[in-house]
Amino acid sequence: VKNVYLNETTADNSAEISILKKIWNQTAPLFKPPLLKNSAILFYLLLSAFSTSTGFTMWVPTMTNEFFTDDESHHGRTFCEVASQSATTGSVNDTEIEDCSNSIQNGALYATMVYSGVSTMLMITLSFIVGVVGKKIITLAVFVMSFTAGTLLLFVKVPMLSIALFFMFLYVAQVLGNINTYLVELNPTHLRSMATCLSVVVARGSGFFSVQIIARLLGEYCTPMMSGYIVLVMSGFVVATFLPSESQLKIISQGEPNRTVDVESPKD
């Protein structure tokens, strides 16, 4: 035998396929049937959760600081009335400002630390009980908790209770772990990395734009703005009802080999 000819194709790592084309081949299948429905549900849940959580978290020190000032002007006022005052303080003409050396009150610092600590403990707790309760039920419960806290926040006039409800409203971000798990379980192996990367883009991108919206509307339109975010969270709950149950996830995982064949990246 002098020569052997193998009928095989070489790995196509040449410059014929651009980086953008490779990215497209990993992204496009996520937004085509049969993956389109699940992708739309999961990315919308991320958008609704992180537009609310990340958007307002940026303003937590500013909003809570006003509740710990010595003038007690926050007593008998709703959260939005106090938050609007904190947002408009110092926005008048410089000649009218008497003191522009405002500082964060100790109480506001401690409250923010509690907010972060409880968020961490809640995330750890949910990670332990998710196997027993189920991802869908926990996701729905988080949205209900956030929606309820946000609704009460519009009417409560007790300072410490307002702060507690505000923090609970922002804990809607606790759905992140479940959503990323869904993205892994509902997508073929070769698309999972891109799906989780896109989840970060959606979460952080929506949070960035939300921060700008809140900055524009907090001072004069706090109540309508808060109402809009509450509706957004409620819509997230409605969409979350379409998530597959644990039994459905088991069926999907058992059919992974066939699903991987059916959902292929676009041909070059």
From TrEMBL:
Its placement in the membrane is given as: Multi-pass membrane protein
Looking up Gene3D superfamilies in the UniProt record yields:
MFS general substrate transporter like domains
Q: Respond yes or no to whether keyword Transit peptide is given for this record.
A: no
Name any GO cellular component annotation. membrane
Main localization is membrane
Compartment annotation: Membrane
Q: What is this protein called?
A: SFRICE_029847
